[in-house]
Amino acid sequence: xxxxxxxxxxxxxxxxxxxxxxxxxxxxxxxxxxxxxxxxxxxxxxxxxxxxxxxxxxxxxxxxxxxxxxxxxxxxxxxxxxxxxxxxxxxxxxxxxxxxxxxxxxxxxxxxxxxxxxxxxxxxxxxxxxxxxxxxx
Amino acid sequence: xxxxxxxxxxxxxxxxxxxxxxxxxxxxxxxxxxxxxxxxxxxxxxxxxxxxxxxxxxxxxxxxxxxxxxxxxxxxxxxxxxxxxxxxxxxxxxxxxxxxxxxxxxxxxxxxxxxxxxxxxxxxxxxxxxxxxxxxxxxxxxxxxxxxxxxxxxxxxxxxxxxxxxxxxxxxxxxxxxxxxxxxxxxxxxxxxxxxxxxxxxxxxxxxxxxxxxxxxxxxxxxxxxxxxxxxxxxxxxxxxxxxxxxxxxxxxxxxxxxxxxxxxxxxxxxxxxxxxxxxxxxxxxxxxxxxxxxxxxxxxxxxxxxxxxxxxxxxxxxxxxxxxxxxxxxxxxxxxxxxxxxxxxxxxxxxxxxxxxxxxxxxxxxxxxxxxxxxxxxxxxx
Lengths: 137, 383
Known about the structure:
The complex is a heterodimer. Chain A is mainly beta.
């Protein structure tokens, strides 16, 4: 994968920097360049605290990584892993893995906080991509 | 807008078709549809073809040139339509709009997908591109995972059970027994579903539609041509299309596919019908929970009551509204780009009285979804 594709996502993936509309003050994460509410294009950066609640989740049990290692664009993920839709305290929702816990402890409505983790490796010689995951708190 | 009818149907067998490629599947479906309409290739004026990803699945783009050439449709305008798993339904709608507008009189609307030339891991990855790769796919959301999160919340909020979801798969497998084109013609039980491999809690292997190769096509005609060429034209009474956020987390309500609600509203209004008027429906059951959500979003049942409705047998043939009489995506198979057209074929067969599970219906609805609900296309057909 081309490095710029990973590099340009660093603020969003590393530091939860999303957007705020200067006109109507609506907050956005993941990043959007245009306000969905009022159409404003001059959005400003907004750093989210990284605290939120689990809206829904699943434990994925089947591998989506390629055991042959032929397809380097597929996230290298061990199964099982937990994925959730999380509602941030500031309002927006995002999708992320839930880590550092027993799966039995994950429930709808539980509080979570952001952690910094490896997201995927782009092949044996490629870039290692980092970003946000969440843990129970 | 002019009236538009479906006058020809053609499809390939659905399944793991190792001996067949993308082009061959497309050609068979299209030419069969042309013959069923009683016309020849030279009568076809325009082609709309739906495919999710000829590029990623079969390493072939520019299908809008290749397919008409190999089908014998010489030099006609041809458009490739893409809206993930709703590509077929959307191709049908584009062809409908073309004929309705008066631009052409005879169109072929087709759909195709060749999925089994890739390994399972790669197929999952290609399908995941129908979700937001930047904010869902990269963080581990697969398609089963996204629908599993909807299922989990539906269970949490409305008390829907895994057995109620399993009942969708059991019904659709039973329905596929009479469909000679179906991938799976084998009855299953609720217990089979419950004991199948867990993919993404609570979705199990038998809650999921399979990876399928297949092609499907229909011939559409203007009213004048339809009356001239066909004794059994089936009219498109309503056509609706809407979009929503590509990502599940950006929806107003995770349990409502607003694209479905909006597309259905347009189709009902155009057809001057209500959900109560629909006598048979083909809905997008890529996972069993998706059929339950469709029953609610199309207005057949109240929000939250689809599980009970299904468990009571109300969506079986002979029930209040038979759903997925073809076997649905679950058992007929889900070659993603072909699915929307295959749904239309079943609807037309129902109205012609040619369906395997004949219901005697005079009004049918089809519902095709792209991704986790980013696109929805709804059509209503009348005899």
